[in-house]
Write a structure and sequence with these properties.
The chain has 133 residues and is of the alpha+beta class. It has one domain (9-124). Helix content is 35%, strand content 9%. The chain has helices at residues 9-14, 23-32, 34-37, 86-90, 95-100, 108-112, 114-124, and strands at residues 40-41, 44-45, 61-64, 75-78. The strands form 2 sheets. It has a two-stranded antiparallel ribbon. The protein has a two-stranded antiparallel sheet with strand order 3-4. β1 and β2 (44-45) form a beta hairpin. The longest helix has 11 residues, at 114-124.
Length: 133
Amino acid sequence: MKDCNQCGKCCIKYADGGLSATLEEIKMWELFQPHIYKYVRNGSIWNDPDTGKQLTHCPFLEKTPTQNNAPHQEKYTCSIYLDRPEDCRHYPTSISEMVRDECEMIEVIDLKDPKRAQIKLDALMSDSRPPNR
């Protein structure tokens, strides 16, 4: 399994209503991160602050400039990385999810032995997921 190359596929795929935030996260944003909280409507995240409509992309996903104008090297960063929702922190959760989402971390060797790859993924993500998951 490769390291994350910041392709942004996961953020782009799930940011249009495919993510949720816990009530605790929303309360913390309301108290301490109003610039994040303004995108919350009725417990749903990433809504336009003016219209309340679901956004088609995460407002905190930022495209970084490419080097040498190479479009295939597009990279993305999260401007709320330390305050991102648990849904984001826990992704990816499984090899099958990575395959479905065309995650660029997965390699051919991972597909040949998905059980071993899942063990590697779980170890890689151990700091981002709750214990006993």
